[in-house]
């Protein structure tokens, strides 16, 4: 029974992996300036990133997904724009929502990591004549990456599990494929169990990958001392 639907399940797994991979990479790029701004001493620099982070961390991903997929289409200006070709597609709406959502969480991870960098290291960098930008680039951010990596790994796994809601807007991810299979076979328990196994396998793979990265960063750090 499962073998018959294996190609469809693999296609759904690839869609899920693609969504999560793009979201966490682009989300990280967006999160870097947000996290730096959130760690600023100036309230006016922190204000807008705080509002962004507060909204995306304070509301469910499913609600955000519906706002993007169903809400944006209500505006005529959006329907007539060059972006409508993408915004009318469930896949792109899911990708945009997941990226914006995870960027808020990664920004908070980065903020906490930046603020956890020992003050002595920053003072040593300034004593060597580094500007604030140089200290941030060469001392603070590399150190913050090592501090925040375990939390970032957890966020990737959480994003993987949260991605299961995208089937609600007809994206054929793992859960979307399983829903379609269940409507044909009525073998709900079997294929939900199969979906659970697929998510577990991906989670284990991500966990091991981040452990290897953490080990590599520790070796790199020890060699530089």
TrEMBL record:
Record's protein name: Arginine ABC transporter permease protein ArtM
**Which family is it part of?**
Belongs to the binding-protein-dependent transport system permease family. HisMQ subfamily.
Classification via Pfam families: BPD_transp_1
* TM spans (from-to): 12-37, 49-72, 92-114, 158-178, 190-210
Topology of the protein relative to the lipid bilayer: Multi-pass membrane protein
The terms describing its cellular component in GO are: ATP-binding cassette (ABC) transporter complex
Keywords per UniProt? Amino-acid transport, Cell inner membrane, Cell membrane, Membrane, Transmembrane, Transmembrane helix, Transport
Identify the species of origin.
Answer: Halopseudomonas pelagia
